[in-house]
């Protein structure tokens, strides 16, 4: 991954442009996995069912805009648009907006960050030859709390609404899409 990302950072002039380079994410349900050495090997593992697109079975919205069907055959970077709940893994300039500190633990940290990047007119560019693989692990304390504690979910919802209002105040009319996207 590092080789592809570094090469793309230079080729796509990340230092001088507002780009968020998306690293397509996959996952396995196996605790032991030989990491694919090439995109072709990864595609074969996808076809065999050893790998899956990240969170496909629980939260497809988070990575759907990556357009995995297009990625399969892409040989050059391609642009994708922001959509509600988009939370890809990205490579960005050091001076990009920081993660909002309201979102610690589980829930909405990456979504809010990507929303802020979009509001600041970052271009989302999918890297055609980079990828990452999420390995299975025990649930974190925070996701366990999210799943089992109604108060945690209510608090997260309140923080989310506060963040959206702040976005609206800061970015004005252009930020309306963040408020309306959730209602569609």
From TrEMBL:
Q: What GO cellular component term, any one, is given? A: membrane
Name the Pfam families for this protein. Answer: Glyco_transf_49
UniProt entry keywords in alphabetical sequence: Glycoprotein, Membrane, Signal-anchor, Transferase, Transmembrane, Transmembrane helix
Q: Which residues form the signal peptide?
A: none
Give the subcellular location: Membrane
Is the keyword Transferase assigned to this protein? yes
| Membrane-related topology note | Single-pass type II membrane protein
Question: Which GO terms label this protein's molecular function in UniProt?
Answer: glucuronosyltransferase activity; xylosyltransferase activity
Gene Ontology biological-process annotations:
protein O-linked glycosylation via mannose
Q: What is this protein called?
A: LARG1 glucuronyltransferase
Q: Which organism is it from?
A: Nyctiprogne leucopyga
Q: What is the lineage of its organism?
A: Eukaryota, Metazoa, Chordata, Craniata, Vertebrata
């Amino acid at each position: 991954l590092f080789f592809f990302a570094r090469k793309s950072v230079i080729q796509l002039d990340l230092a001088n442009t507002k780009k968020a380079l998306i690293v397509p994410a996959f996952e396995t349900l196996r605790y032991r996995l030989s990491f694919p050495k090439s995109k072709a090997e990864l595609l074969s593992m996808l076809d065999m069912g050893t790998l899956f697109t990240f969170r496909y079975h629980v939260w497809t919205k988070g990575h759907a805009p990556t357009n995995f069907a297009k990625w399969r055959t892409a040989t050059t970077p391609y642009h994708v648009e922001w959509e509600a709940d988009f939370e890809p893994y990205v490579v960005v300039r050091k001076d990009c907006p920081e993660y909002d500190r309201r979102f610690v633990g589980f829930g909405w940290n990456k979504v809010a960050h990507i929303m802020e990047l979009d509001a600041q007119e970052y271009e989302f560019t999918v890297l055609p030859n980079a990828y990452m693989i999420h390995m299975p692990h025990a649930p974190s304390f925070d996701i366990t709390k999210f799943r089992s504690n109604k108060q945690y979910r209510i608090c997260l919802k309140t923080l989310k609404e506060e963040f959206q209002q702040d976005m609206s105040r800061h970015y004005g009319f252009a930020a309306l899409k963040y408020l309306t996207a959730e209602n569609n």
